[in-house]
Every structure is written in C-alpha cells, then in structure tokens.
Amino acid sequence: MLHRIFPYALLTLAAMALGSLGLAGPASAGRIHVCQYPSPAQPAAPAGARPPLRAITSTAAGGDFSLAITRAGRVLAWGTNRYGQLGDGTRQDRARPVFVRGPGGLRYLEDVVAVAAGVCHGLALLEDGRVAAWGWNGFGQVGNGSRAFWVKTPVLVRGIDGRGTLQGVMQVAAGAKHSLALLQDGAVVAWGANDSQQLGVGGYRGREAPVRVLGIDGKGKLGAVASVAAGTQHSLAVLLDGTVAAWGSNLRGEIGNGRSHGYQPYPIRVRSLSGDDGSLSGVTSVTAGERFSIARLANGSLAAWGWNFYGELGDGTRDRRSTPVLVHGVGDTPVLTGVESVSAGDNSFVLALLEDGGVIAWGRGNLGQLGDGARTGFASLPRPVRGVRGRPALTNVTHIAAGANHSFAVRRGTRTVVGWGRNLYHQVDASSVPIRFVPVAVRR
C-alpha cells in the first residue's frame, strides 16, 4: 500500500523489486515508506583511524538515518538526507555524523534532552519543554503549520491548533508520518498524517499543527498519561493507572482489542493477557513497530500483540495476536523477565535491554536487525545480540534504539555507540558494507 500518496505510485514497482533491501516485504503486504525511494548507495567515507563516537547519552534510529545526543546537549545525524532528515541545512547524504543545525539559522541545535526519529523526520525535545522538528513534511508531521515537502533545518513545533509555540512537553514520539507529544499536564497532542486515524482525533483529516487527542472511548480529551509511543500507523499511551490506550490502524490486531480489522478513531484500552473484557495492567512503558505493539510490565516481563509474520511478538510462533501474550524467554525459559527497556523496530523486529546490561533481539533478521551474526529471515524467540569484535554477547549497555532496519546501543562508561543492521546509506557506519550482521563501533 502507498499510504494514499498517489503522486508517488510510480515508485512502487521499483521498491517491490528491492524487497531484499528492506524497502518492502511480505509482512508489509507490499508496504513502501515513500520517502525512501531507492537511489545508489553513497561511497564509503575516506578510510582513516577515526575515533569512536563518545559521550553519547541516547540515540534514535529512523528509516535510513540516525540521531545521537551528545553529553553537551547537541544532536549528531548521519545516513540518508534526501528529505532533510539530518537537519544540517542540506539534502546531502552523510557517511559520518554531522551536527544538526538550530532553529533560525543557529549553528547548533542545543539543550536537547531527547530525540525521536520517524521514517524520514526527526523530533528533539528541548530542556525548556519546546520541540524542534525537521525532515519529511508531506503530511505536516514536522508541525510547522505547513506541508512544505521537506524542512532541511529544525523549526519549532507550533502550539495547539497552530497558536504560538508548543510548550510544556515531557516526551516526544515519531511514527512513519505522524508525531506525538506528552504534555506536563498529562495530555497528549498529535500532528501529521491521519489516514489510519493515528492522531486519535476522529475522522481522517491530517493536521499540520498539534491537536489534543480524544479521551478514552472518545469522551473528552485524553489525560493522566505517563508515556506515549508511535508505531508506523498507530499510537499507544500508558496511563497513570498502568493501563494502555491505543488508537489508529488495527489491520493486524495492533490495537489489542480482540479484533484485527479497520481503524480505531479514538483511544480505547488494550485488553488483558487473558483476552477477556479486562484491561492490560501493570504497564510501565510501551513501544510500537509496524502493526505490532510491546508493553513492559512492572515485573520486568513483556506483553506483545499484533502482526507476527516474522515472530516479532517473541512468543515462539508466527501467529497474529489481537490481544496481548507474554514474550518467551531466552532458550528454555518460558517467560522473559529482567527487562529494563524495550524498543520496537519499524520493520518487524524488537530489542530488549536486560537489567544486567545485555541485549536480546527477535523478529525479522534478514538485514542484520537481530545483530546475532545469523543471516536467517526471522527468529520467533529472543536471542542474544553478539558483541563487537567477535565477542559472544553484547554487554555493559545502558541504552538501545531500534529503527526501520538498523539499531544502536550505548555502552556504559565512555558512552560509546555500537550499531548493526542495514547500512546501505551509512546509517550505521561509514564503511561500504551494506549490512552489518553483528555490532560495530560507530565512529566520528
């Protein structure tokens, strides 16, 4: 499907022919993220003894581009830049990290505390509670009140209904074509595409500036929210009572309401693990990929629901689930526990950071997404991510981020970054290797 973007329909045949490169596949029923049309890979950066990327606090992985926050609060970006998603004022692909520019012509985007990467747009939460955005804006997902096709340098997201500048933001999340922000008062605002009702405002009309998300069952406005997550075409929110609200596309059961069809125009609660009329509870955080959802529970286990073509639910099957099931543990362990955080990749894979600093992965793996060295198509059970330089397992990790087909982990101490997965546009590292099947150090 083309997300209703008919002017780019001519790109479909080319993208389908490049399915092996991760632009489309069976699980996506012919999906193509239209901001990523094929182009020749850029040559590798000049060889040389470059130092590793250090002093990084967190990362975000998008479609074929990457973001990282430095300890100084600035943002680095690398990979494809066809739609200005690197925010450096150009549309030139970058094999090595460059600094994202600041709004209004400032040399650097500064005072950044969090970043989020959509397929081809970026969001940055600033210390003062404002949000900067840049990149692909064909559906208004940058939130500057327009649909200017690309925004090459960051702009401040407008306020609710386009008035002033958005203030008081606690968290941001980026989907394929839409964006979410959690406000200090527990409300949620959304902007961008709404073709799958992923904004949670009813109807199908997109928004070029933030609007308040409707309340549970469409009553009032959504409030008492602790955190949010944006999938490709659906959205999730953890409420302060530990339940989860979901809205948007439900074609593969990603809403978790016991059905697998249509769209959900406003938030409803995700059902319980038993599948009855009760609600999933005890949730501390959520993450979402393309047509599937993952929730971390207070006991360190994970619940998953939605599409499962590549085993992305981690339950040992490839069966679609329209209500939550528990993720299986590594090896013979029946239930995964000890999870610190979880990150869902857009293209049907999942990373989990364990309390001991290890990382495990499951789901689609044909482009090295699992980082386990295997070149198999998928894994329906969690398996350890390999370490760098042939070590058996990645350890000492404090942060993970999964993108469309590539991933990052930040190491404790020096805060260096390792990455793995698809590297056709140097979104992992500056080498000419198109796929990194095991983690490698990201260098300056």
Number of helices: 1
Rounded average pLDDT: 90
β-strand percent reads 35-45%
**How does CATH name the architecture?**
7 Propeller
| The CATH superfamily title | Regulator of chromosome condensation 1/beta-lactamase-inhibitor protein II
Number of strands: 28
**Amino- and carboxy-terminal Cα gap:** 38 Å
Q: How would you describe the shape?
A: globular
CATH top level assignment: Mainly Beta
Global Rg? 20 Å
Poorly predicted regions are 1-32
H/E topology pattern: HEEEEEEEEEEEEEEEEEEEEEEEEEEEE
Annotated CATH topology: Methylamine Dehydrogenase, Chain H
Q: Please state the structural category.
A: mainly beta
Q: Which descriptors apply to this entry?
A:
444 residues; 4-stranded antiparallel β-sheet; disordered N terminus; Methylamine Dehydrogenase, Chain H; mainly beta; 2% helix
What does the secondary structure layout of this molecule look like, with pairings?
Blueprint lengths: L10 H7 L38 E6 L3 E6 L4 E5 L14 E6 L12 E6 L3 E6 L4 E6 L13 E7 L12 E6 L3 E6 L4 E5 L14 E6 L12 E6 L3 E6 L4 E6 L13 E7 L13 E6 L3 E6 L4 E5 L14 E6 L12 E7 L3 E6 L4 E6 L13 E7 L12 E6 L3 E6 L5 E6 L12 E7 L3
Antiparallel strand pairs: 1-2, 2-3, 3-4, 5-6, 6-7, 7-8, 9-10, 10-11, 11-12, 13-14, 14-15, 15-16, 17-18, 18-19, 19-20, 21-22, 22-23, 23-24, 25-26, 26-27, 27-28
